[in-house]
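Re: the 265-residue chain
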Amino acid sequence: MYATVNGVRLAFSARGRGRGPALLLIHGFPLDRRMWEAQLSGLSRLAHVVAPDLRGHGQSEAPSGPYSMDRHADDLAGLLDRLSIQQAIVTGLSMGGYVAFAFWRRHAERVLALTLLDTRAEPDTPQAQAGRDAAAARVQQIGAEAFAREMLPRLLAPASLTDPDIADRALAIMASQTPSGIVAALAGLRDRPDSRPILPTITAPTLVVVGAEDALTPPADAAAMAAAIPQARLATIPAAGHLSPLENPAAVNATLRELIRRIGQ
């Protein structure tokens, strides 16, 4: 399905309309809504599950960048408007978590609950910002598929990396992104604000989820972030790295199912 929001045609999947609270799933980088297939199919009996492709990703249009986290958040608020959804459980993985923070800053009244998967509140360091620029140059040089192959080992747990059902699926999603979309996303990631100051302001029920083998946003960092958010809960997903919903969907679905049921009471 498609909806034009803020002048950009966004692709999205929606299942379970009218069944419980809305669950908005925000993908990571450089991915798209296909990473949430197990959640779309596994949670639609309990919730109205909406999974969009952010601008520049998947089947959504790719206008010129950079794509700031605020811009993504406003796009998602506009999509909820188009779907007549007033509030949602806002759920983001990695870059999607950064977008979720922006959504809280700009549209807090629409956040029924917050789920932060394999993400962090800190901004890029100067070194990391330089790395984003180097990555942008690299993807322009070698293309999306080669860039995805270089990036994949950092995203998956070792066992996931040797499991073709997981690794091949993740690679296919990443490799299908356009170089221009990847470059615009990298600029937005580089320039994102520090979200640590807003952590104590998050009053919505919050679930922090992290893969036990996540090397990019490790469990200790997730625990510290959860401790900074009032009454946040922490869930560690076994046998998963940075892409926990793809690597161990059953465990991630169980944690989300518990949150949905708690919110729906």
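The chain has one domain: 2-264.
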